[in-house]
Amino acid sequence: MKIYNTLTGKKEEFVPLEEGKVKIYVCGPTVYNLIHIGNARPMVIFDTVRRYFAYKGYDVTYVSNFTDIDDKIIKKANEDGADAAEVATHFIEECNRDMDGLGIGKDMVHPLATQVIPEMIDMIQTLIDKGYAYESNGTVYYRVRKFKCYGKLSGKNIDDLEAGHRDIKVAGEENKEDNLDFVLWKPKKEGEPAWPSPWSDGRPGWHIECSVMAKKYLGDSIDIHAGGEDLIFPHHENEIAQSEAANGVPFAKYWMHNGFLRIVNKEGEFEKMSKSLGNFLTVRDVSEKYPLEVLRFFMLGAHYRNPINFSDELMESAANGLDRIKTCLTKLEELKEKTAGSASDDEKKNLEEADAFRSRFEEAMDDDFNTADAVAAVFDLVKFINTNTDDSSSKEYADSLYEILCSLIGVLGLSTSTGSGELLDEEIEGLINERNEARKNKDFARADEIRDLLIDKGIILEDTRDGVRWKRR
Ligand code: AMP
Ligand code: ZN
User: Fold this and answer.
1) Ligand 2: distance of its center to the CA of 25 in Å?
2) Pocket-forming residues, ligand 1, beta carbon under 6 Å
3) Closest C-alpha among 412, 415, 371 to residue 51
4) In whole angstroms, what is the distance from residue 364 CA to residue 2 CA?
5) pTM over the 0.70 mark
6) Under a CB-based contact definition with an 8 Å cutoff, are residues 26 and 63 in contact?
7) Containing H/E element for 201?
8) Any idea which ligand is nearest the CA of 30?
9) Among all ligands shown, which has an atom nearest to the Cα of 91?
10) What is the pLDDT of residues 132-186, one digit of tens each?
């Protein structure tokens, strides 16, 4: 299996640190708003990477954080007259809903920055003790020049960085030894949430949380660290500097970065979707128009390192493609029900041919997770099934084809449910009432369980001022 490693700029054979195991850390969102579909791209991509490793028999540990303390969260809390923790909790819940809709697996850990404050203080102290960090007026900075390999991920040269920084003086950071140094801990300002530390009552910088969460949940050295390509510098460069200086061992063996999801601007050019440009569509916006599974499928239609351009036409084409796959699945389900017997010789030969599509799928995924080619292999398998099955097919044959198709679309994180076993309207409303009751009684576990069950059945819930509305996908 080959992975393009940003650290070396090459496609490399994947060799796990520990045989049969893979440890993956993916930078997650800052939770002050509904996530946009650009933020959803790394979620979908790296969940698919995770699924493929599991399919290949690896024992996968996957960690992706929520940044739940940050300037933007505090700003949003002040605007809303809420506190930062309330804002973060609310948007984590919303993000979990979006991830459910996108088919992001539950088999992963989502730690919060605020849950690892003591561990962050420990790592900062280690960095100070080793001479990689220093305190000045309650702020702790990382001493960038002390870390000899700084720039190894982004390929940036320290002197060029210095030139870029010369005139920049950030208010409150006048006491830095060097303009290149970055913040590990900062003292609170009036009205901000804060935690006690040996240096000041304050809060951690952004970069340290990922170094600490990776260490806590995965260990000092991990197999894969991933995120969007905008994170290469400075975030991932700084994570390497922190983790390798503190732990004394290489941090991540493979660095994977997804390209941007782009959208057309007024001039007709495609540009990165981002909150700051204001050109974003939230996952929730898209869910009003399409099942989120279509958004997932759209994203898998491109190689993850290439940019992907969002448009209604491409979403329509993804919806049609997904429909073709689901129709084939339904056909097989029906055949499985009504046919009998074991596979004929011709059918056995066909099954060998069908298995070649699985090999093509695996070859594509083995080549740096080329989901575009993997999806093409699934389409060809669907075509093959459609032309090589009919009412005279045997049950064994239909079962085997069904198994191949389900296992491949399962790797892509697409549901194998075709809508059979649908809930009746009264059942849905009964469950929604039960969920409301559970929420009233603060039984959030039960409330979430019901929500998940409804999502699994293709029911989209929307919390409005007038109560919960629902619709079928
Ligand atoms: P943020 O909340 O901005 O830190 O972003 C969370 C994740 O989404 C990071 O891995 C970003 O690199 C990624 N991301 C943000 N915008 C885009 C985009 N337009 N396309 C792809 N990935 C993005
Ligand atoms: Zn991170």
Assistant:
1) 8
2) 27, 29-30, 38-39, 41-42, 227-228, 230-231, 258, 260-261, 272-274
3) 412
4) 10
5) yes
6) yes
7) none
8) 1
9) 1
10) 999 999 999 999 999 999 999 999 988 888 776 665 556 667 789 999 999 999 9
What does the DSSP assignment read for 115-174?
GGHHHHHHHHHHHHHTTSEEEETTEEEE-GGGSTTTTTTTT--HHHHHHHHTT---TT-T
Closest CA to 103 of 261, 281, 284, 296: 296
CA distances from 153 to 4, 24, 252, 331, 459 (A): 13, 17, 11, 49, 43
pLDDT number for residue 467: 81
Question: HEC states along 214-269?
Answer: HHHHHCCCEEEEEEEHHHHHHHHHHHHHHHHHHHCCCCEEEEEEECCEEEECCCCC
**Cα 241 to middle of ligand 1, angstroms:** 22
Nearest in space to 55 (alpha carbons), one of 107, 17, 109: 107
Mean pLDDT across the stretch 188-205? 95
Span 200-227, mean pLDDT?
98
Amino acid at 423: L
Where b means 16+ CB within 10 Å and e means fewer, 158-167 reads eeebeeeeee
d(CA 116, CA 183): 17
In the DSSP assignment, the letter for residue 114 is G
Give the pLDDT band (50/70/90) at residue 444: confident
Distance 211 CA to ligand 2 centre (A): 8
Q: Which two tokens stand for residue 437?
A: 């009751």
Return the sign of the alpha-carbon dihedral for residues 224, 226, 229, 234: negative
Q: What is the spatial order of strands in the sheet that 59-64 belongs to? A: 59-64, 21-26, 222-228, 252-258
- The span from the CA of 388 to the CA of 328, in Å, is 12
Domains and CATH numbers, the chain: 2-261 (3.40.50.620), 425-472 (no CATH)
Read off the amino acid at residue 398. A
- The CA 217 to ligand 1 mean position distance, Å, reads 22
Strand order in the sheet with 270-272: 270-272, 261-264, 308-309
Taking residue 375's Cβ as centre, other Cβ atoms within 10 Å add up to 24
Phi, psi of 198 (to 5 degrees): -65, -15
